[in-house]
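FAQ: What does the model actually see?

It sees only this:
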Amino acid sequence: MFTFVAFPLYAVLLTSVQTERDVRSPDLSLIPTYLDFSHYQAVLTPGHIVPVVEGMMNSLFVSLVAAIIAVALAAPAAYALHRLHVPGGRYILAAMVSVYVLPTLLFIIPLYIAWISVGLHDTYAGLIIPYVAFLLPFTVWILGSFVKAVPAEVEEAARIDGASPLQILTRIVTPLILPGVFACLLLGFILSWVEFLTPLLFTSDITILTVALGLYRSTFDIQIGQLAASAVLTALPVIVITLIFQKRLQEVIVVGADK
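And it is asked to produce this:
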């Protein structure tokens, strides 16, 4: 299993540090005898066909904002649906799952028509809103598991002392579920960073191009080595975050699997 995951990553990394002539050679060795970083230098040059730096800055902005908004909306929603006995709460939670069960295009196409009508096409808001909509159900489900793990006696004691539901949420529950909040922020950022379909449909302006879309649009007019270097650079933030916060992310995945 590890080989299936690691080998493609190694192949891309190897391709990025070999000359174009050797990359296209059938005699390319899996163990490099030299390291050539000219592909990295080329793709980081201003005006290159792959806007790596611009794409990373755009992806950083929309991914951060989308993750923060999704968690900010999901935390009170998860608390209300799992603690306050909202009428029809179970049906609301079930309806949220439909976002992931039904084909994505079923939601994207009407949104595309609406975005054109209201002028949100080719804007950051036009990307962030679908990102948040996609992240929100998943985040509500995950944070709901953390909310349910908070002892009800703690909230009851605060309620007896006169705390309102909002005060219980902000001063009692939120500090206790901070590990889940942080992990959901990380996962939301990663999922937004690698998202491809949304920017493909909702952007055509190169100035707000994201990294995933930038790589796709440059595949026909670029050297393979430079494309590999671009892929390594754009994947680097996700790989670093995953390695550093591996335990936090595993916690979220395990909680989601237990649902």
